[in-house]
Amino acid sequence: MITAALARTGSIRAAREREEPMDRIAFPYRSSSHLVLLHVVAESGAWEKNGLEVDYDRQISSTEAHRAVPTGEVEFVGGNHVSTYGHRARGDSWVYLGQTVNQVKQQLVVRADSGINGLADLQGRKVGTRGSHPGLNDWLYLKQHGLDADRDDVELVRQTKLKGNSMDAEDPAQKAKAPPLWHLVRDRVVDACFLGPPASLFAKVAGLKVIDIEPLPMIQFTTVSSSLGFVEKHPDIVERFLKGLIEGIHFFKTRPEEAIDIIERRFDRQGKMNREQATITHQSLAGILEPKLYPQMRAIANVYEEAVRQDKDAKKINPMELWDLHHLRRIDDTGFVDGLYGKRNMAPAPHGHAHGQHDHSHAAPASDSVAKITSSEAVGDPACDDDCTTPS
Fold first, then answer.
1. Is the N or the C terminus of the chain less surrounded, counting Cβ atoms within 10 Å?
2. What residues form DSSP beta bridges with 12?
3. Is residue 379 part of a domain?
């Protein structure tokens, strides 16, 4: 904790020594789960080192983001992954500049006496789902594995009712009070659900059966989003912002003890974490963060399929219309990221294998931490992209 504070102090001093004013920008999140990363980036001093004071610790709804970003009230948003494609078809100026995570890493959670041993056994069963984007992920994952809810192969039971033609909850208060999704499995309301760590660990501790499945390539978690007008007028701010996020991810990956200190101390939106919970949360995210912030094509293809399901206007555009990666390319070509990690041609974060292969690329949480972790609403789920139910 002390080392992280010293690093942040040094970064602030470096910014001041340049005798340049700090640019203040807004970067609200769509889900408070993003704060696991954002608190670490901020406290590492990475944005301040690049001359930026970033207002990141507040939420924004999908609807409000679509209003505030084009007007310039908000410079960047950390989300809105699905609704943007239909809005683009109707003339919106939204643009994606970088991507932190390219997959949803989940496990299948069932009761021990359910007779379910894999995805094929979900035929004719009820699967609980929550949130807008996570619910679409569950629909797509099942469809890609031969279980189409539209053909009644499986029944999706949604915890939260959404507003018409929106990614926002109809009743936010009801959504906030909804029980953890694995409770619905335990209480026999549904037969199964998909959960990522650490939520799946809580389910296992409670006596439920947790089955490993391959990840879903997906644009999710913190995505750097802005408007084309702002990006064209302020390319210097854009590149400094991206550099700060890249440096913050490097800190998250390479200085785990300090990152865990920050998570334990700062990630308290639903209550305080203990050390084991903070460790599990860090380990669940560190291995899948993209060092260079590039999106992966299968992730874009999958989120676009969800966008078309959500809003038929999305079919009118090419999904690549929203992605502007030339700022990242310019940063990458200077050797900036390779210089941080001390190597050339660095591989992207590992991702799931296609064609039914098992994924072995993600570091498992330490066994001693798993043994000690207890269920808590303080722990965020990276797959919970729109402040869906807390995963305890």
1. N
2. none
3. no
Q: Identify the pLDDT of residue 358.
A: 38
Same domain, 97 and 118: no
391 in any annotated domain: no
CATH of the domain at 193: 3.40.190.10
Count of positions (residues) in the chain = 392
Residue 157 and residue 248 in one domain: no
Q: Which of 234, 226, 243, 225 is nearest to 49 (CA)?
A: 243
Q: What gap in Å lies between CA 213 and CA 286, rounded to an integer?
A: 19
Q: Which carries the bigger pLDDT value, residue 159 or residue 377? A: 159
- Residue pair 238/97 in contact by the 8 Å Cβ criterion: yes
Give yes or no: residues 147 and 178 share one domain: yes
Q: State pLDDT tens for residues 299-342.
A: 999 999 999 999 999 999 999 999 999 999 999 999 999 999 99
In whole angstroms, what is the distance from residue 275 CA to residue 373 CA? 9
Q: Are residues 114 and 212 in the same domain?
A: yes
Do residue 197 and residue 175 come from a single domain? yes
Place of tokens 């602030």: 12
Residue 371 Cα distances to 201, 282, 358, 368, 374, angstroms: 10, 16, 25, 5, 9
Q: CB-based contacts of 250: which residues, under 8 Å, 6+ apart? A: 291, 337, 340, 341
Cα within 13 Å of Cα(346), Cβ side: 19
Digit-coded pLDDT (tens) for 247-260: 999 999 999 999 99
Note whether 33 and 244 are within 8 A (CB): no
- 3-class SS at 273? coil
Residue 381 has phi, psi (to 5 degrees) of: -110, 115
68: containing domain: 2-102+218-341
Do both 336 and 242 map to the same domain? yes
DSSP 344: S
Sequence-separated (6 or more) residues with CB below 8 Å from residue 246: 46, 291, 292, 293, 331, 336, 337, 340
Residues 6+ apart with CB under 8 A from 279: 260, 365, 366, 369
Closest-CA residue to 210 (of 180, 185, 178, 179): 185
The stretch 194-212 carries a mean pLDDT of 89
